Amino acid sequence: MDSGFVIVADWGSSKLRAHLCQIDTDDKLVPIDVGFGLGVTKVNGQFQQELESVSANWILQYGEMPILLSGQIGANIGWHEAPYVRCPAKTNQLADHLYQFSVNDMPVYIVPGMSCMLDNDTPDVMRGEELQVMGWLAQKPERQQGQHLLCLPGTHTKWVLVNNGQIEVFKTSMTGELYELLSSNSVLIQTVNNTLSEPSFMQGIELASRQTGFFSHGVFSVRTRQLFGQLNPEDSCSYLSGILVGADVRGAVTSSAWNMENIACVHLIGATDLVFRFELALKHHDVDVIKHEVEEVNLAGYQQIIKQIKAAD
Amino acid sequence: MDSGFVIVADWGSSKLRAHLCQIDTDDKLVPIDVGFGLGVTKVNGQFQQELESVSANWILQYGEMPILLSGQIGANIGWHEAPYVRCPAKTNQLADHLYQFSVNDMPVYIVPGMSCMLDNDTPDVMRGEELQVMGWLAQKPERQQGQHLLCLPGTHTKWVLVNNGQIEVFKTSMTGELYELLSSNSVLIQTVNNTLSEPSFMQGIELASRQTGFFSHGVFSVRTRQLFGQLNPEDSCSYLSGILVGADVRGAVTSSAWNMENIACVHLIGATDLVFRFELALKHHDVDVIKHEVEEVNLAGYQQIIKQIKAAD
Fold first, then answer.
1. Which of A95, A194, A241, B188 is buried deepest, with most CB atoms within 10 A?
2. Model confidence over A12-53: pLDDT tens digits?
């Protein structure tokens, strides 16, 4: 890790997002360029070719450099499996369990995912989000103290409980994937419209907040409210989204995996529009939120890994 | 309705299922033959041609006869709209609101669907199931008394509360459609296997019964339990089904639309395999069930309609 440059990449199921970064004098990562490639499930096992095509010009210009990868690329369907680090665990254990190999004489490191066992004896897993939590923890020393709940909305939303700098437990909800399936392939929606109608979204939140067993028994109202003129078809996706995000947030605030009375606020990390929707839902439950830039948190995570690699060298 | 023969058909979204029946001396329907055609959403508006192709041989052999249709054929996407009868309502109101027209000089009657307004101000609708409830009520006079809860599992499961012979209210859950979407198009299942593994199914029921907000936060365990060797991939569909049916049944037994303490048992009407799954889930909640033949209940419903048409003639 002597080079002044590094490539860091979040390589998920559906896409690869890479940054060329300069490592400045106090070890901070400064992004110089960004590149995109195909996700793990889309490259037909041609991982090296895909990485080369994203990084070739950077290496031509700046020379050989280390490469850091996180996300599904370390799963059993990825390039090399980096086994899950089991929670409760400090995030610095991630750097202790990197999977390391070489590509064209350059060192490549894959950050392992994390697993946990929920109290109902079901396992949960994440890959990629653990690095963001690591970055979030590193951004401010005081985050190492006390109990914090992080929410990372996405295709698979992760709710992560951090206690005194350690990831205790986390839960996945498939809110994003359910939205995709139900908006594109179900009887509920005729024409997909992802523009947010806040009143319709809040109507969905409201419904999802009120009743146990709501999801199965409530989601059909996306159709019936259109039939009865209570909902404009162009707002139906927002209403569906409200129900799904509302059910997700209700599941989180009533979860037995943590006690919301001990949680001062929820830290939201993710895409702006999605984070806004979770903010609305959490505020509906009188839960305060603090929002964080996903890009910054990600880079802070890679930076921590690099620091540890350097220290171990 | 003088003819000794009648065609009755459940014409839903995805298929048309018709019976040629003889009306015997005490007005009972005796099925003679069965025929199948395309559903409402698959015929490109060619409703008459589809009906003719299913019924042509019967009419050739037995002459002109009346035709009774129920299901989505009466929806706004169907042949002719038969507006919903609003609950609470006696099922004999269905016969008062038939949509009648002629095809090749034969009278055609479309049974209207039913609608209700749930206490959370969301409407619900059904088309086809109301006729089954009507048939179920007609099968035994004592069913006209007291409170009964019926469950009709399917793509869209209907839970129907009957009070003193009147349909009070009902709820739809999209359990079947969710199963289709999640087993075929999600990250949860690699290979669809609809053969029931009862232990895996019960594991899903168990999980869904335990916790509020379970659905969003629990369904991802279909994937993680496979990853951690707790679930065989070939049993994963059964486990998913258990979660979905379990969430549906939990939603029903905790619903504010009725009070389970006043319900002696749940009457199940539907396909054998699906009914068995709901039976397992309901028994898990210590709820007794009585199962009914969907075909018999259907014919009993058409029979009631015919009786009323004759009486009005």
1. A241
2. 988 999 999 999 888 899 999 999 999 999 999 999 999 999
